[in-house]
Amino acid sequence: GAGVSQSPRYKVAKRGQDVALRCDPISGHVSLFWYQQALGQGPEFLTYFQNEAQLDKSGLPSDRFFAERPEGSVSTLKIQRTQQEDSAVYLCALGTGGVETQYFGPGTRLLVL
Amino acid sequence: AQSVAQPEDQVNVAEGNPLTVKCTYSVSGNPYLFWYVQYPNRGLQFLLKYITGDNLVKGSYGFEAEFNKSQTSFHLKKPSALVSDSALYFCAVANFNKFYFGSGTKLNVKP
């Protein structure tokens, strides 16, 4: 891919706990996307950044979900007061702007108990 | 509204035989169509895309896909399947930087 790492790779959280998932682009990319992939499903769009600006957050399922990319590089997806239905793989993807190929990181698998 | 349908949860094919993984789409405006493959415990890997031009698109690992506007389809094909092609395949349509993915098709290639 375009060179993107995600951490942690696996996270187990107790219900009600806050979690922070990190996406670290190795190379500079204008566009950064977050997706949620539930078990047995395709990825679903959460939010999109162009540089540091969050241009679309229409896919965030509730106000417990928050994403930021303060310097236009590393991005963090934060989930507050986690619920069992938040259990999924969270994917970060990079693009170069416009309608173009997105390159995906390995994902963070979140399990909320 | 944009949507993608992958009607088959699973496709089984013998090694050496041709394979087809089906995808149909619904978009407003021009479709930008993609195929990705996902191996266990790994992220999605780009295979190919259709933006405009020739309806037959060639991609990575010998895969190709045919864009059919009248049938609103974008089926993934390969002339001769390999066991190593066994994976989960996702079709996606792009609209204003959002990707809308299908639910995925598991491809099983038997030796």
State the CATH architecture of chain B.
Sandwich
CATH class of chain A: Mainly Beta
Instruction: Give the beta-strand count of chain B.
Output: 12
Average residue-wise pLDDT of chain A: 92
Instruction: Kindly give the count of domains of chain B.
Output: 1
Let me know the CATH homologous superfamily of chain B. Answer: Immunoglobulins
Account of the protein in words:
The complex is a heterodimer of chains A (113) and B (111). Chain A is mainly β and 113 residues long. Chain A has a single domain (4-112), classed as Immunoglobulin-like (Sandwich), CATH 2.60.40.10. Chain A has no helices and eleven strands. In chain A, strand 5 (44-50) and strand 6 form a beta hairpin. Chain A is globular. The model of chain A has no long low-confidence stretch (mean pLDDT 92). Chain B is mainly β. Chain B has a single domain, classed as Sandwich (Immunoglobulin-like), CATH 2.60.40. In chain B, 0% of the residues lie in helices and 55% in strands. Chain B has no helices and twelve strands. In chain B, the strands form three sheets. In chain B, strands 2, 5, 6, 10, 11 and 12 form a six-stranded mixed sheet that branches. Chain B starts with a strand and ends with a strand. The model of chain B has no long low-confidence stretch (mean pLDDT 93). Chains A and B meet through strand 4, strand 5, strand 9 and strand 10 of A and strand 5, strand 6, strand 10 and strand 11 of B.
Set down the secondary structure blueprint.
The complex is a heterodimer of chains A (113) and B (111).
Chain A: E1 4-7, E2 10-13, E3 19-25, E4 31-37, E5 44-50, E6 53-56, E7 65-68, E8 75-79, E9 88-95, E10 103-104, E11 108-112
Parallel strand pairs in A: 2-11
Antiparallel strand pairs in A: 1-3, 3-8, 4-5, 4-9, 5-6, 7-8, 9-10, 9-11
Chain B: E1 3-5, E2 10-14, E3 19-21, E4 24-26, E5 32-38, E6 44-50, E7 56-58, E8 64-68, E9 73-78, E10 87-95, E11 98-101, E12 105-110
Parallel strand pairs in B: 2-12
Antiparallel strand pairs in B: 1-4, 3-9, 5-6, 5-10, 7-8, 8-9, 10-11, 10-12
